[in-house]
Design brief:
There is one protein chain. The chain has helices spanning 5-14, 26-40, 63-70, 114-127, 159-163, 185-190, 214-228, 232-244, 292-306, 316-322, 388-403; strands at 17-19, 74-81, 84-92, 108-109, 289-290, 327-328, 339-340, 345-347, 354-361, 365-372, 377-383. With 409 residues, it is α+β, with helices and mostly antiparallel strands. The protein has a domain at 80-85 and 107-383: 3-Layer(aba) Sandwich (Beta-lactamase). The chain is globular, with a radius of gyration of 21 Å.
Amino acid sequence: MKKRVAVVVVLVMICTVAIAPSQTGKEKDSQNALRIRAVENGLVEFRPGVPASDAPPPKLWALAERMTLHKIPGISIAVIDNNTIAWAKGYGLLKAGNPLPVTPKSFFEAASTSKAVTAALVMHFVDKGKLTLDQDVNGYLKSWNLAENEWTKEKKVTLRYLLTHQAGMPATNFPHDETIGMPTLLQVLKGELPAKNKPAVVGSVPGSLWNYSNIGYVVIQQILEDIAGKPFDQIAREVLFQPLGMTSSTFVYPLRKDLRESEAVPHDDQGKACLPAMPGGAVAQGGLMTTPTELALFAIELMRAFQGKSDRILSQKSVQAMIHKELDLDPRMFGFPLGEGLGVFLQGTGKELSFLHPGSNDPGATSWLVAYPELGKGAIIMTNGVNGDLFSLEILPALGKAHGWPPAR
């Protein structure tokens, strides 16, 4: 994030690459050009809370200026209107100090936005009758089992609890002993070397409290691999990626050698390039590599299914279950009220309903997916800087204003 100061500002202006919208006429092309310009020059500093009625108009910032301030070398955006990709554009650099620009085809870490994809895979197998949301997950697990303990006597761990972070699992990231190597999925679940994370052990009565848990999604990965008899990436490829044309999406890392030149490198809070710290065998919680354009294809498919216009991946019933509020979350978490669905966060109701999922991977990559299923609108923002979450919260209101999203509540 650091080496780009003036360089990034220049490259944001001269080295961006855009995907043209579908051929719907010069008028729509011109309208999108105006919207892009409004976003690029209409950012407001993010501050939680509602501004006072007598507050002066906020200062408007250029996207390039905010990239420099947040020390983010590169960002990629895809915007959805009327269930189609309206525009997609890349800004800045894949790596500070390197001239290769971000384009709409650049690979970014989806981080925890991966959880929405994992949830969709679960619901696919629910549709197929191979899984249910409220059964003891030990009935599906073959390679490993969740240990029974004092907390599971009253209630059992279910997929519903795992998907909504209510399974009593610990909050843990996934450090490992690099001198030994990358841990397998089972080593992560057990917390055994070379994995150095907390093991997947229930520490509270399932369903009794909300505790964001990456390792809960690792348990889901093992469930899916056991019931399908295939590696997780193969499941995702066959169920989602191939049918939706997501040819640049994968849970396998490192990327193939021929794709690595298109990979956005993570950067720390000073803008310094870092080695990626992508997970090994455990990937369902945050191991997706993709582009905003391809995540937009995924979001569009969910919205079309929600509207009853498609059942290629999921039934309308399953998507509506995903986008049904299971519980309310503490509004202090993001600075605004949110609900928890199945693998997604929720905001608003009716035509203002949106589903979303942010993601942040160490040492410096972020992702945001936001979609309004009743309206067929949304956006995906991916960055290669640790401050990308805050930056995305400045971009999203500008996108909403330009594209007619419901006002933030």
